[in-house]
Write a structure and sequence with these properties.
Blueprint: E1 9-12, H1 16-27, E2 35-38, H2 44-52, E3 56-58, E4 69-72, H3 79-86, E5 95-98, H4 105-109, E6 117-122, E7 132-138, H5 144-155, E8 158-162, H6 169-177, H7 179-196, H8 201-221, H9 226-232, H10 239-248, H11 253-272
Parallel strand pairs: 1-2, 1-4, 2-3, 4-5, 5-6, 7-8
Antiparallel strand pairs: 6-7
Helix pairs in contact: 6-11, 7-8
Length: about 270
């Protein structure tokens, strides 16, 4: 199915996440002529992508008036500065789709015209390979058609889940938004543990990386829960069981991740204040 919108799309901020989204849209067939980028200095790879597709990039009068979607893909501390700049471009049918961490629907609305349709979403870095999981919520001004457009844009880079309780977004940010970094850290620590056990650097890195990749693919393809998969590969009194006694024990992985997610959620709340 080819991705198409009711009108132009303005991408405000074309960094890593914005660029990943843009690449996903183009891969899904979105007409490049309908896309505009507002970013004075996009990274080289995004500049190259825009140049290949003749996408207008920059600031000023060449940007569209009353676009169908304005997607904010900037750092949270820049939203207050940039929203007044895009405010004049908002038309009656424009929906503002924000992926700025910690920025609530209410805080975004303070800088926009009354009753502006706003969707808040949290994708993750796996959008770069079309495997993000994104959670989204909308304010009361968002129509069914606007929600559908936002859903199509987000689905271009992975799975989308909609929620009604915006207060859950802090936990969402802590679990899936920041989650890829936890997995990368797992691979990093596993490699370091391999080195400590006597493996050379290259072999330790290779084994850790391939193991995390393979386990993730098994998880993706299986209908079993993570717990069931873990139990299936754990023989009683075997090597895996010996390792899991450490990881599941006091101050083990569950405790660490619970505290890590709580810290990330707390920071997300702080960003919204």
């Amino acid at each position: 199915m080819t991705l198409s919108l009711a009108g132009p799309l303005l991408l405000v901020g074309a960094g890593k996440m914005g660029g990943a989204l843009l690449e996903g849209w183009l891969r899904q067939g979105l007409d490049p002529a309908t896309v505009f980028i507002q970013d004075p200095a996009p990274p080289p790879e995004v500049q190259a992508l825009a140049a290949r597709h003749n996408i207008a990039a920059g600031v000023g009068p060449d940007l569209p008036s009353a676009p169908s979607v304005i997607l904010l893909a900037v750092k949270p501390d820049l939203t207050s500065k940039l929203l007044p700049e895009v405010e004049p471009m908002i038309g009656e049918r424009t929906v503002v789709l924000s992926i700025a961490a910690g920025r609530t629907l209410g805080s975004l609305s303070h800088h926009l015209p009354p009753d502006t349709a706003i969707v808040r979403a949290m994708p993750n870095t796996a959008a770069a390979v079309g495997r993000s999981v994104t959670v989204a919520c909308a304010n009361d001004s968002v129509t069914r058609d606007q929600a559908r457009e936002c859903n199509m844009l987000l689905e271009a880079v992975g799975e989308v889940v909609w929620i009604e309780d915006e207060s859950l977004m802090d936990a969402v940010t802590a679990v899936s938004g920041s989650g890829p970094a936890y997995v990368f850290l797992l691979a990093e620590c596993l490699a370091e543990a391999g080195r400590a056990a006597g493996l050379d650097d290259e072999l330790a890195r290779r084994l850790a990386r391939a193991t995390v990749e393979g386990a993730g693919e098994v998880l993706r393809r299986s209908d079993l829960s993570p717990q069931q998969l873990r139990e299936r590969v754990t023989s009683p009194k075997g090597t895996t069981a010996a390792a899991l006694e450490v990881l599941i024990g006091k101050d083990g992985m569950q405790d660490l991740l619970t505290r890590a997610v709580a810290a990330a959620a707390k920071r997300s709340k702080e960003l919204s204040s």
